[in-house]
Amino acid sequence: GSGSAFAHGGGMIRVDARRQITVNGTLTANGETAGGASGSGSGGAIYLTCRVFDGAAGGALYANGGSGLPTFSYVRTGGGGRIAIWRVRDSAEGAVTAEAKLGSGSQGETTLGTDGTVVWGFLPASGTIIMLR
């Protein structure tokens, strides 16, 4: 758990929906903060695929790294994770946010990871192919 000598990474959330995904709340795959001088956990992964992505303001996806505790001379923050949202159409219109940032911490000598990545990708629309010869 949080505060232990060894911190866990953020794990993974994966949803492959045939039709629609609606995010009105928060999906979190953050890394834990280490309780000792060991490093904090990296952010996990969130992977969503659907035909229509929808959500309301306040909807959020997080895969942040764990913070470094400032009580130790070495602060080892966890690197950010990976978020990928693949959809054919987007009805959320930017209302849902996503972040995969490096954990916070900046006291003494600091060992830092890096920010993770967030991809908002579009899938091709399914259709009909007619071949004439």
Give the gist of this structure.
This protein is mainly β and 133 residues long.
What keywords describe this structure?
133 residues, mainly beta, 3-stranded parallel sheet, 0% helix
Strand % is: 35-45%
**Low-pLDDT segments, ≥5 res:** none
| Classification by helices and strands | mainly beta
Most strands sheet: 5 strands, parallel
- Encode the helix/strand succession as letters: EEEEEEEEEE
What Rg is obtained from the alpha carbons, in whole angstroms? 18 Å
- Please state the average pLDDT score: 87
Distance between the termini: 64 Å
For the secondary structure, the number of strands is 10
The number of helical elements comes to 0
Helix content: under 10%
**Global outline:** elongated
